[in-house]
């Protein structure tokens, strides 16, 4: 898939090269992001840092319009308060009526204090239209297609001093990512641009239900059975979106 994306970008570049002046540059940006989608209010997902670096090409058709593309590496982190999520689900059932007793306290404390940090690395090809309504000021809008290279999850329980990092199971991760991108920027000089961009994904980075089922499945099974619960009837079975949402501040240096 990555090979096809690169070939498509090259074909587009060749098609417009004859009609436009071309600039080549290096782009770097810092980012902060979280997730959005269906029922994300059920989660306790925070913001995480990230970065975006790569090589860009700008095809300048006239002073008011340009087209940008390139190859970029996008690193994303998202923090999930798994403990807060479990409290929403399990707390209503932590009564003797459902067979709960103090002997389960340690197990529940383990779950209630767990935090999971997701780390993602994508190879991306942006296709962005740039409009210059005024000299040096520009507005960007376009799409970004990415291929997932790395997806990992770090599970941490501070109260027990536990930490473990594992790859997201193949069946739970999405290999491709498609996002909309928009932003504004300013050309400080002919060779230096600074910009602010927002990115909103159309596809889930992971299948949240499948990933949740893989997180400490033995603990979850013993917990639900001890409380007389069927996990398929709980909020755990709700469809939950896990789409990318990030805000980036960056700069591009055009050296050709």
Rg computed from alpha carbons, rounded to a whole number of angstroms: 22 Å
- The largest beta-sheet arranges its strands as 1-2-3-4-5-7-8-9
Mean pLDDT: 84
- Estimated share of beta-strand residues: over 45%
Question: Which CATH first-tier class would you pick?
Answer: Mainly Beta
Give the structural class.
Answer: alpha+beta
Number of helices: 5
Total number of domains: 1
Instruction: Tell me the CATH architecture.
Output: Beta Barrel
Helix proportion range: 10-25%
CATH topology label? Porin
Give the topology string: H per helix, E per strand.
HEEEHHEEEEEHHE
List segments where confidence is low: pLDDT < 50 over at least 5 consecutive residues: 221-235
Pfam families: OMP_b-brl_2 (PF13568)
Protein name: Outer membrane protein beta-barrel domain-containing protein
InterPro entries: Beta-barrel_OMP_2
Domain Outer membrane protein beta-barrel: 18-206
């Amino acid at each position: 898939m990555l090979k096809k994306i690169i070939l498509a970008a090259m074909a587009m570049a060749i098609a417009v090269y004859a009609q436009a002046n071309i600039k080549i540059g290096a782009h770097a940006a810092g980012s902060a992001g979280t997730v959005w989608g269906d029922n994300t209010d059920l989660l306790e997902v925070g913001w995480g840092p990230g970065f975006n670096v790569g090589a860009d090409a700008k095809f300048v058709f006239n002073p008011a319009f340009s087209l940008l593309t390139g190859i970029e590496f996008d690193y994303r982190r998202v923090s999930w308060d798994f403990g807060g999520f479990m409290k929403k689900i399990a707390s209503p059932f932590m009564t003797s009526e459902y067979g709960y007793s103090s002997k389960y306290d340690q197990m529940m404390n383990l779950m209630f204090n767990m935090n999971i940090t997701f780390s993602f690395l994508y190879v991306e090809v942006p296709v962005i239209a740039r409009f210059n309504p005024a000299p040096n000021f520009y507005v960007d809008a376009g799409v970004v297609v990415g291929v997932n290279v790395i997806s990992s999850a770090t599970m941490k329980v501070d109260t027990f001093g536990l930490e473990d990092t594992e790859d997201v199971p193949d069946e739970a991760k999405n290999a491709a990512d498609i996002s909309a991108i928009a932003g504004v920027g300013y050309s400080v000089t002919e060779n230096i641009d600074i910009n602010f961009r927002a990115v909103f994904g159309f596809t889930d980075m992971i299948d949240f239900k499948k990933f949740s089922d893989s997180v400490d499945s033995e603990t979850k099974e013993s917990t639900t059975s001890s409380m007389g619960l069927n996990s398929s009837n709980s909020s755990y079975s709700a469809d939950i979106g896990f789409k990318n949402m990030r805000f980036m501040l960056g700069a591009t240096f055009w050296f050709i």
